[in-house]
Write a structure and sequence with these properties.
Blueprint (H helix, E strand, L loop, with lengths): L1 H4 L4 H20 L3 H8 L4 H29 L1 H18 L6 H15 L2 H11 L3 H27 L7 H23 L22 H5 L2 H16 L4 H12 L4 H26 L4 H25 L4 H33 L5 H27 L5 H22 L25
Helix pairs in contact: 2-8, 2-9, 3-4, 4-5, 4-6, 4-16, 5-6, 5-7, 5-9, 7-16, 8-13, 8-15, 11-16, 11-17, 12-14, 12-16, 13-15, 14-15, 14-17, 15-16, 16-17
């Protein structure tokens, strides 16, 4: 299955190797930014939250510019400097000592990260055809999670709040790993150029974001993504953790185990899921994602009901929720970018991918803001009902999208027989 999921072109394989290497560095630092800013650098919880929120706001604001530049000058000329900026910013986190310096460094990191993911998706899309694109995006997501898991396990054995140098070490290592995909891209001089230039056109790309938003199927896909991620991904950091600790009353260590179960599920199940959904309706797969996410939140809700009877059962429900959620991710990760690029034109591919990335940024703002008030109502039950209902609404939106797509865009295998030319009978 792994051999079949790998892209045919070696350039795409090397780009995916860069994803794995940089993800290991990301995993080193991903769980610890808030702890580093508060427990090591002495920022208050409020100021640390402001710094992290500022990063999200700057990234979201710059993402549209990144998509425009990708279409105008090519993903290569955007991704390479962004990787270097990201490396400088991440390494500089080792030197922050105040709220002001933290805001400055996070601004640099946000500038770098604003176009990396959409640029890399554009490059991968240009190196694959629609028949293999879904498999490649799914495998790329699995490699991302594998790298984050490896980095997370390594950093857990390194960091110590009593020794600030351990945190400085992981941020410097993270910075070095961002140079890996940059070096790989430098060895591929023919990769990542503006797609319109291949047809000998040097004029600016026709249209813009208004043209993208006039694409009715993509607009429906964006609505699906906003509803699903607001009630799904955006709830992991705040809603999931708060419900698990405050309502289900599990030890915070159980939350760490749950996140590990999520990573294990993705790494183990991704290739199997890719194989099972190939040639089937992408919109039905997206609808299934909403149903799986809803089931995950229901299992988490059960943890709050059984915590008084069995702490072990509550802990198992929390871990199971995260694992089930991970299974839903294995369907979303290959289908969402594949469908985005099936709808995109070459001239606007960067903008399509940038808007798809912006979905996570927008929901990342809405989700945490709404989770707090909902969590305080009826002992978290209102929050559970809201996120379950939201995921199911996303499923309905996905099913309605299917009517707007051609069989090719929806990824359905054509089974209609091709009429053959009759052979004349000799007289």
């Amino acid at each position: 299955m792994l051999r079949r999921a790998l892209p045919r072109r070696s350039e795409a394989r090397r780009i995916m190797l860069g994803t794995l290497l940089s993800a290991i560095g990301r995993g080193l630092t991903l769980p610890f930014l808030f702890i580093y800013l508060t427990d090591v650098r002495g920022l208050t919880d409020t100021r640390a939250g402001l710094v992290i929120g500022w990063y999200g706001a700057v990234t979201l604001a710059l993402s549209p510019l990144g998509g425009t530049l990708i279409d105008r000058i090519g993903a290569r000329r955007v991704v390479l400097p962004c990787l270097l900026i990201e490396a400088v910013g991440t390494g500089s986190l080792a030197l922050v000592h105040s709220t002001g310096s933290a805001l400055l460094v996070m601004t640099v990191i946000a500038i770098g990260s604003s176009a990396i993911w959409s640029g890399q998706n554009t490059i991968l899309a240009s190196l694959t055809d629609d028949g293999e694109r879904q498999r490649v995006f799914g495998l790329n997501f699995a490699l991302l999670n594998l790298g984050i898991g490896i980095g997370g396990m390594a950093s857990g054995a390194i960091v110590d709040t009593a020794r600030p140098g351990t945190f400085q070490t992981i941020y410097l290592l993270d910075a070095l790993t961002y140079l890996m995909p940059a070096l790989i891209l430098l060895t591929l001089p023919a990769v990542g150029h503006r797609l319109g230039a291949r047809r000998g056109t040097d004029e600016p790309s026709p249209g813009g974001y208004l043209t993208v938003l006039r694409d009715r199927p993509f607009r429906r896909l964006v609505i699906f993504g906003l509803v699903l991620t607001t009630c799904g991904y955006a709830q992991i950091e705040v809603g999931f953790a708060a419900y698990a600790v405050r309502v289900a009353e599990v030890n915070p260590r159980v939350v760490a185990w749950a996140l590990a179960a999520n990573t294990v599920m993705i790494v183990l199940a991704q290739l199997l899921v890719i194989r099972r959904i190939e040639g089937r309706s992408r919109t039905r797969a997206l609808a299934a994602v909403g149903a799986v996410f809803a089931a995950a939140w229901l299992v988490l809700g059960a943890a709050g009901l059984v915590n008084g009877e069995s702490a072990l059962l509550a802990a198992l429900c929390v871990v199971a929720c995260s694992a089930i959620f991970g299974f839903g991710e294995t369907m979303l990760s290959p289908v969402m970018p594949a469908l985005t690029n099936a709808l995109a034109t070459d001239e606007l591919r960067g903008r399509y991918n940038a808007m798809s990335s912006m979905i996570f940024g927008i929901s990342g703002v809405i989700g945490p803001v709404t989770a707090g008030p909902l969590m305080g109502a009826a002992n978290g039950r209102v929050w559970v009902a809201t996120v379950v209902g939201g995921c199911l609404v996303a499923s309905l939106v996905a099913l309605s999208l299917g009517r707007l797509l051609s069989p090719e865009q929806d990824g359905r295998a054509t089974t209609e027989p091709v009429p053959s030319t009759p052979v004349p009978t000799p007289v």
